[in-house]
Write the structure tokens for this entry.
Amino acid sequence: MKATEGHQLGEADTTGQDFSEFYRMEYPGMVRLAVSLTGDVDRAEDVVQDAFARLHGRFPSLDRPGGYLRTSVVNLCRDHHRRGALEKRELGRRCPAPLSLDASELIDVLLHLPFKQRAVLVLRYWGDWSEAEIAEAVGCRPGNVKSLASRGLATLRKEVPR
């Protein structure tokens, strides 16, 4: 899927661009990505702000600040997921099943997948990332991206009625 300015998600042309211009152009797409991975708008906005803060000082020296930004967003979402999983285990709670499985609530179903499977599906089908880019962001080998996608899709097929 392409970002609104005609650039691939996180791959804006930054030639001659200042940080505030880059921020305005990339912020909406990065929030959508983070919402897809966390399932929470407020948390997604916090994650994206943290990612931009990490990028700010390095922005002038990076060849691909968009790549750095999107990898930071994925990593921060993964950290959020890990903390949430630990909290759930400590409290002994299970995530409730989604009430409806229409298209607007697909994220509810995605949130029941393990983080790596969810991240692979979101980055592949929503972000249009290559297997190599996904593998780097998620922290696995490119071959594992295929198996994670396959397992995630198999689970979704079971959960989503036709």
Remarks:
- Residues 1-94 form one domain.
- The chain has two domains: 1-94, 98-162.
- The two ends are 24 Å apart (CA to CA).
- The chain has seven helices and no strands.
